[in-house]
Structures are given as C-alpha cells and as structure tokens.
C-alpha cells in the first residue's frame, strides 16, 4: 500500500487511519477526549489547537446525514472507504466529524490518539454490532450471547489445544489448493498463469473454514463444484456484498428504501443457516450409527460438549463462516503480492519451509513453529494492509452520566 502523506508531520502509513464512531451521546469523557461538551488533544498532535475547544468546532464533512449517504451511494464510496477518509483527512485535518445515514462519527488519523482511546476499553473489548445481521437473528430467532459464547468457543477455535485438532483439515485443503493451481498452470500452453487470485483464494478460504467448522468438504476446488456448494458460496458472497449498503441505515428503513436489497440479504443468511442445519443433521446421524468417534470439526466438538444451546452453536458457527472468509483471503492475496515484489524474501521463506519439513515432525503445529519468517511475513501483511478498511471497537466508560458510553474505533 502507498504511504499516506500527513498534512501535519512526516509520513503516516495507510494502517494509521482510525475512526471513532458515536453510538450514544452524553456529557462524558474518554481518555483525553471530552465529548460532546469539549474535545481535547495535545497541541503537538493537532495543528492550530491549543487546549480544549467546543465539540462543534471539530471540522465536519457535511451537516446533512442523508445527503451524505446519498453521495456515498451515488459515488459507490462503500467500496472506497479508505480513499474517502484519506481525502477528508487531507482536507479537514487529523480529526473530523462525519454523519452518514444513522451513523454519527469522529474520524481520528494519528495512532497516538487511537492508542489513548483503546486504553479506555477495559479487559473486555467489544465491537460494534452490524444491524442487518442482528435484524436477521431477531427475525429468525437465532440467539447469540457474545461474551459467554466466545469464552466457550475460544477453547475449540483459538486455544493451542483446539487449533492442533483442526490443523490437519486446513493442511489437507491447502494441499488441494496447490494441486488446483498446478492444474490451472498445466492447462496453459505456455506453462505459466496470469490470473486474479482473489476469487480462487476466496474459494480456498471458504473450503478450508467450512471443513474446520463443519467437518465436511464443499468441493469448491473441484473442476465442477456441486450445485448446493455453488449455492452456498454464492450466498456468502451476496451476504458480504449487501452488508455494506445496509451499514448506514436501520433495517426498518432499508426495507422501505430498498426492499430488494434487504430481501437478498435475508435470503443469503437463510441459505447459510440452512447449510449449518444440514451439517448438524449429518453429525447427529454419525452419532446415531455408533461408529468409533474421531475429531470431525469444531461444530461436532461443541455439540458433544453440550456447553452451548444448539441455536447458539449454529449462530456462532455461521458468523465464524461469514467473518473468516474475506478476512483470510485478502491477507493471503496481499502476502503473495508482497512476496512477488520481494523475490529474495520469497526464496528465503521457501528454504525455511523445506528445512522445517526436513525435520520430519509429523505434528503440524511443530512444523509451523519452525517457520518464524513465514509468520513474520503474514504479520507484516496484517499490519501494513488490514483486511477491511475499518476494525471497529466499542468503548464503554461512565463519567458524570447515568448512561453508558458506546464508542467504536476503527483502524
């Protein structure tokens, strides 16, 4: 990614773009920011600002929320958030206000200010909910308690013991993906391939995540995927595409403004949940056959443990399906792009992989631990090219008010 030139000091990388979104307003204070009565930043960070100033003095990008939303739709700004924010930061400075539809936000540029805000979030970070997703859950009565559910899910999803169980599943799909790409190369008479890898990586990540979550292969890396698998991947794509326009409008308003888009969104989620129902039925059938039990994915483990209600398991696994595809495909794409631009690093990583495999360990986690350069390359990609334009967090702090304070910070 190209570096962003700050109006104030030096060069700020693209990853240093932050957004602070208000979800409720009251006379409150977060770190060095006092809102909405006063806002305060160190004068070295904000040119022309000494001490505190009135909240309304923060530079603002338009005052009409619905006109701003119309401009977003007209210019397709949903697909170019980072360009829109970059332009506004250059025009308005490192902190500015913006209202788009039902969202009122303050966008912060400097990493120091975002760090100051993150310090207030406490030991239980929370992200802003997506209204269209929550509306679907409410309409279909799919219940999901974020914190209590995640504490149970963590044992199977991100703990070292849990990840060791499904690593072989991911490795199998990775090997199939490499074979798939080799087949594409062999089809070309030149023995090489020039292609936009995003769609192939999207299929790979959906295949891998579905195998780890549900214990079933979709067959998306085959020459002719099954119709039901094709329907599932289309539903995931539609859900992600329709989420962006729905972000800035309450679902009730969207049903009136653009009912077709809303219905597409609901139908896509229904297809995803139907896939989860089918997988649950298959798992129960395996249980009833009385075969010797072996590891068959995260969902099966959750069902056996019975620590979560069935509906919570289904809701959480479908959200992991939705949240783990694009956010994995994009970092992989950017990593491959950077390796292509830095062939010496690519050669070093290839040698590291060969040496790790030559050690002869059959435990995949030990093989991965022997690849620090590969891990470093992936971490650097996540640092320099974040998958989405916004990573939202809700901050809660009560000061001089009977109401809680909800703030979302995006990186």
TrEMBL record:
Any GO BP: cholesterol metabolic process
Pfam families, alphabetized: p450
UniProtKB keywords: Heme, Iron, Membrane, Metal-binding, Mitochondrion, Monooxygenase, Oxidoreductase
Location relative to the cell: Mitochondrion membrane
InterPro entries: CYP11_CYP27_families, Cyt_P450, Cyt_P450_E_grp-I, Cyt_P450_sf
Cofactor(s) the record lists: heme
GO molecular function, one term: heme binding
Cellular component terms (Gene Ontology): mitochondrial inner membrane
PANTHER family hit by this protein: CYTOCHROME P450, CYTOCHROME P450 11B2, MITOCHONDRIAL
Family statement: Belongs to the cytochrome P450 family.
Protein name: Cytochrome P450C11
Annotated source species: Naja naja (Indian cobra)
């Amino acid at each position: 990614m190209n570096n962003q030139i700050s109006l104030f000091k030096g060069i700020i990388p693209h990853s240093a773009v932050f957004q602070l979104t208000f979800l409720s307003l009251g006379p409150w204070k977060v770190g060095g920011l006092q809102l909405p009565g006063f806002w305060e930043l160190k004068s070295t960070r904000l040119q022309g600002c000494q001490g505190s100033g009135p909240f309304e003095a923060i530079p603002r990008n338009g005052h009409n929320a619905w006109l701003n939303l119309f401009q977003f739709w007209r210019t397709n700004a949903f697909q170019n958030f980072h360009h829109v924010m970059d332009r506004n930061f250059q025009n308005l400075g490192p902190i500015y206000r913006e209202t788009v539809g039902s969202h009122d936000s303050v966008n912060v540029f400097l990493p120091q200010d975002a760090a100051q805000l993150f310090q207030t979030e406490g030991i239980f970070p929370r992200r802003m909910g997506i209204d269209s997703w929550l509306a679907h859950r409410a309409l279909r009565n799919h219940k999901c308690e974020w914190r209590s559910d995640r504490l149970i899910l963590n044992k199977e999803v991100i703990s070292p013991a849990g990840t060791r169980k499904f690593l072989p599943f991911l490795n199998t799909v990775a090997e199939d993906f490499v074979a798939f790409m080799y087949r594409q190369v062999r089809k070309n008479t030149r023995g090489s391939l020039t292609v936009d890898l995003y769609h192939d990586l999207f299929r790979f990540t959906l295949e891998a995540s579905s195998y780890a979550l549900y214990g079933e292969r979709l067959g998306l890396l085959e020459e002719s995927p099954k119709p039901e698998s094709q329907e599932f991947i289309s539903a995931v794509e539609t859900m992600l595409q329709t989420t962006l326009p729905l972000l800035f409008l309450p679902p009730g308003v969207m049903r009136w403004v653009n009912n077709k888009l809303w219905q597409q969104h609901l139908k896509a989620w229904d297809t995803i949940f139907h896939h989860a129902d089918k997988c649950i039925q298959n798992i129960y059938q395996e249980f009833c056959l009385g075969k010797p039990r072996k590891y068959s994915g995260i969902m099966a483990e959750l069902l056996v443990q019975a620590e979560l209600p069935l509906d919570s398991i289904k809701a959480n696994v479908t959200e992991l399906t939705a949240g783990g595809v694009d956010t994995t495909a994009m970092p992989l794409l950017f990593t491959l792009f950077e390796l292509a631009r830095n062939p010496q690093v690519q050669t070093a990583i290839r040698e590291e992989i060969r040496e790790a495999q030559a050690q002869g360990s059959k435990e995949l986690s030990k093989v991965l631990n022997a690849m620090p350069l590969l891990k470093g390359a992936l971490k650097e990609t996540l640092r320099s090219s974040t998958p989405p334009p916004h990573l939202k967090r809700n901050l809660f702090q009560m000061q001089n008010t009977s109401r809680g304070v909800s703030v979302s910070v995006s990186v």
